[in-house]
Amino acid sequence: MCPNLDVTWDASQPLQVHWITPDTVVLRQSIEADFEAPFLYLLFGRDRALLLDTGATADSPLREVIDFLVGEWLAQHPRADYQLVVAHSHTHGDHVAGDAQFTDQPNTVVTAHSAALESMDLGARMITVLPIPGHHPSSIAIYDAETGLLLTGDTMYPGRLYVDDFPAFAASISLLCDFADTHPVTAILGAHIEMSTTPGRDFPIGSKRHPHEVALPMTVEQLHAIRDAVGRSARPGAHRFPDFAIWNGPCRRAHLSHRIRLLLTRR
Ligand SMILES: [Zn+2]
What we know:
The protein is an alpha/beta fold. The chain has one domain (about 15-265): Metallo-beta-lactamase, Chain A, CATH 3.60.15.10. Helices cover about 25% and strands about 25% of the residues. The protein contains five helices and 14 strands. β13 and β14 (about 245-250) form a beta hairpin. The longest helix has 17 residues, at about 165-180. The relative contact order is 0.12. The model has no long low-confidence stretch (mean pLDDT about 95). Bound molecules: zinc ion. Zinc ion binds near residues 92, 94, 95, 154 and 192. Zinc ion binds near residues 36, 38, 94 and 192.
């Protein structure tokens, strides 16, 4: 099933839903609810569904939306005892804030530390989990052989790739390149968009509007470009590239310039 990634993101919806395939959903939390505007993924197997990440706010309507989507899917594929597994691309607050909506629910498992996850079978749908520390020690990528989608969380997306542990990040990007060179990858989907359609120009941190935002999907060629860029970003600080940026370490000067840019856009 070829993934359909042709979607325009609409900030007026608290949680926008887009079906990538009949068994795969991407959701985006509205940038008006939280400037991080993270992407969440829902993958349906024959026995269980996997929800990757729960968003940036505790009070989003995530639970209702997921229950509705699971109900919709089950109406097409009736079966008893269908499970929901809630996992995380990593444990930063903008990816786990909705967890409490899923704890103590029937047929639902909320995993605590996704980096410890191993490859899992959702029921005729094998999911490969790749530990990719560097942005955060718990960071993982998920590869879905059914669609060829590689979900990379905050390690790779069109935006600022914040690096906490540079050697680990470099090794993780190399691992993703090696993986993508040996498996069919149709698109690489991360957890945010921060780049505008002007090459090298990102939106100010905290901005609640993204006019002329680039599209979410990235390519294996861009993954290789990130590997090349990592080789030129060993010095701490913010390094700009056309399709992404690498922020190696705390980047205080870059943060200050973003605060100024944000103030200017609000005036
Ligand atoms: Zn994030």
